[in-house]
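ok, trying the design again with the full structure, not the truncated one.
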């Protein structure tokens, strides 16, 4: 499993997986109401973990064997909601089990971030959970779905030299900006980068400056 090194520091937020931090994050997520999660067409798990004692996020590289627009993308474990899934949490946990061979307990789930649209317009509910020490897990990625698993320490994600953004301009003049996370095994971009940004704001408020800027579209005259 790949993952960048680097020294720690104040931004490492070493206690971010502590009981106190978990209680704060759970309360904030519950207060946020997970808007739109009940109607979300898909869900992803945002896997918090520790690697050699350092807090990190776990990412996957989707298999290029997959059909569709997300083939080869950096992502979090997840996918479309099945009719048998009771809610977004059930979808995220089922997809994680199918993709990584890990059964994440419902008690490890901290809550849900706000629902977001992907680039096809499908609504996605991000579900935050703590997997614990990565060294204690046995990951068995499904090669039909996952090409690679890697982690990025929070300290890496919080360093400004590893943060970027991309400006977009539509033909009608509409402009927006999305985040990018650099200098890891793979560039983190798109919806996964937006979810990563929201997760950093949840875990270490005040340590990350938001890059996403999506202004409301003007109503047609």
């Amino acid at each position: 499993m790949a993952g960048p090194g680097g020294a720690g520091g104040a931004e490492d937020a070493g206690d971010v997986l502590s009981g106190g931090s978990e209680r704060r994050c759970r309360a904030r997520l519950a207060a946020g109401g997970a808007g739109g999660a009940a109607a979300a067409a898909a869900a992803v798990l945002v896997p918090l973990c520790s690697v050699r004692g350092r807090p990190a996020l776990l990412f996957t590289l989707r298999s290029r064997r997959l059909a569709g627009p997300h083939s080869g993308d950096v992502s979090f474990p997840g996918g479309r909601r099945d009719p048998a899934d009771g809610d977004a949490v059930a979808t995220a946990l089922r997809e994680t089990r199918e993709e990584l061979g890990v059964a994440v307990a419902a008690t490890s789930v901290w809550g849900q971030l706000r629902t977001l649209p992907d680039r096809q317009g499908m609504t996605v509910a991000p579900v935050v959970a703590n997997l614990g020490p990565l060294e204690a897990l046995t990951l068995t990625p499904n090669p039909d779905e996952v090409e690679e698993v890697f982690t990025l320490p929070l300290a890496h994600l919080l360093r400004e030299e590893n943060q970027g953004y991309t400006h977009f301009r539509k033909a009608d003049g509409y402009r927006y900006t999305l985040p990018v996370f650099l200098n890891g095994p793979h560039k983190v971009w798109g919806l996964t980068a937006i979810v990563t940004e929201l997760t950093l704001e949840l875990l270490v408020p005040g340590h990350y400056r938001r890059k996403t800027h999506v202004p409301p579209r003007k109503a047609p005259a």
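Keeping the full-length input from now on. The chain has four helices and ten strands.
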